[in-house]
Amino acid sequence: MSGAPIQELQRGIEQYRDELMGDNLARQRVEVAIITFGNTVRTEQTFTTADSLILPNLQAGGYTPMAAALLEGIRLVEGRKQDYRDHGVAYYRPWIFLITDGEPTDADLWQSALNELKTKVEAKSLTLFVVGVKGANMNKLRELPALNGPQSLDQTRFRDLFIWLSQSQKGIAASRPDDQLSLPAPNWVITS
Predict the structure, then answer these.
(1) pLDDT per residue over 126-173, tens digit each?
(2) How far is residue 80 CA from its own chain's centroid?
């Protein structure tokens, strides 16, 4: 992903932060970590609330170590959940939100990532969302245990995706950790 699409992704993430900042509960309760995986896996931001969120300057890379990024995401999530348990704090089921325009180039780790994710999703210890934009190998992404399968996104609609994401998380932030909630219908999914 490069040029206009990566700029739109950058603007979408900025919109997401701004949407969370505009909601008092979400600003305090929603925690975000950002991992990029263009050429290398890099934790750009460990878990923090919107008011401390430092947005990365996104850049395209040649390789897509997606499996390693997913394993790093699981590690971060499990570490954060342990922090909460250690302090007796109830928490919401965490989400991993994957956005890609490619396919994993680290095939040696792919099965490990799939197995780990399937175990976590089946145990309801996290929810996985997968979004593929132009160029994504949707057949490969279908192997992931994503809620409602991988979704296709027009790369000009990142802001719509992030508004939906922030609205969903605002609703969760206003609830209790054990409440059953329905997410709003995504208005950004390509259906054909």
Answers:
(1) 999 999 998 899 999 999 999 888 999 887 788 899 998 999 998 888
(2) 15
Predicted TM-score of the model (pTM): 0.92
Q: Where are the domains of the chain?
A: 4-173
Residue that the structure tokens 């996290």 belong to: 126
The DSSP annotation for 86-104 comes to HTT---PPPEEEEEESS--
* Tokens standing for residue 121: 């999703």
Nearest to 26 by CA among 35, 16, 34: 16
CATH fourth-level superfamily of 4-173:
von Willebrand factor, type A domain (3.40.50.410)
- Model confidence pLDDT, tens digit, residues 123-135: 999 999 999 998 8
- Tell me, what DSSP letter sits at residue 56? P
Q: Which residues make beta-bridge pairs with 43?
A: 35
